[in-house]
Amino acid sequence: MARLRVPPGRTGRLWLRQRIALADRGVSLLERKLRILRGEQRRLRLLADGTEREWVRRAAEARRWALRSGLAGGQRALRLAAPHTAADAAVTWTTVMGVSYPISADCALPGPDGDSVIATAALTPAIEAHRTATLAAVRHAAARAALRIVDREVETTRVRERALRKHWLPRLRAALAQTELELAEAERAESIRLKLATRTPRNRGDRP
Q1: What pLDDT is recorded for position 115?
Q2: Which one, out of 119, 130, 172, 187, has a CA that is 20 to 30 A from the CA of 147?
Q3: Angle between helices 169-198 and 9-81 (to 10 degrees)
Q4: What domain count does the chain have?
Q5: Apex CA 147: angle with CA 151 and CA 86, to 5°?
Q6: Which residues neighbour 103 within 8 Å (Cβ) at sequence distance 6 or greater?
Q7: What confidence tens digit (pLDDT) does each residue in 24-69 have?
Q8: pTM
Q9: How far is CA 54 from CA 91, 119, 205, in A?
Q10: CA–CA distance from 99 to each of 32, 38, 41, 159, 163 (Å)?
Q11: DSSP states of 163-193
């Protein structure tokens, strides 16, 4: 690890004190950021777990209806019932402690168009089941993306806070202690020198 380049003398002491104060403030800010982000991390993990369960349930239901529709009318009936317009997902973002991530998501799903053909009765609930599963998938994707972003930021912040608290601050404080010791020794040496310089020299012939 590179040695700190501290200015000499009292300037160095002031330099170190200022940097220690800045590092202490940095640790406090990072600890506060960690507390807030970890709370949000817990909330997002619960949300992601819930949206995953909903998505899995809705996807299984959509598969069951697709199977029924396929058995009733064949794969051609499924293709004829599918709309030609793509779904449009909209994601709302928020920012917490400088971190931006999705807070919610919705999906505009196309209805049957002029070319869609509903050939069997099973296709209507199948279409609705797939619409619901698509919306659940979009919401789960947004929740997972939010959790992934916050997880990454929590880890980055934790590493920075630990580096300041465990490495940078101890180096600064050790350097300050060394500088204080050197200044104290220099002041003692200067005090002794001044005392010796102010003494009245005695002539050799003077008696004690």
Answers
A1: 54
A2: 130
A3: 170
A4: 1
A5: 140
A6: 92, 93, 94, 146
A7: 999 999 999 999 999 999 999 999 999 999 999 999 999 998 888 7
A8: 0.79
A9: 18, 29, 108
A10: 14, 12, 12, 16, 20
A11: IIIIIIHHHHHHHHHHHHHHHHHHHHHHHHH
Range of the domain at 131: 27-166
Q: Give the pairing type, strands 99-108 and 88-96.
A: antiparallel
Q: Which residues contact 13 (CB under 8 A, 6 or more apart)?
A: 176, 179, 180, 183
Q: Which two tokens stand for residue 163?
A: 């580096």
Residue 194 falls inside a structural domain: no
Tokens of 200: 């009245």
Considering the domain boundaries, does residue 71 fall inside one?
yes
Q: Check which CATH number belongs to the domain holding 76 and give it.
A: 1.10.287.3240
Reading the block at residue 182, the tokens are: 């050197």
Could you report the per-residue pLDDT of 119-163, keeping only the tens digit for each?
566 677 888 888 899 999 999 999 999 999 999 999 999 999 999
d(CA 66, CA 74): 10
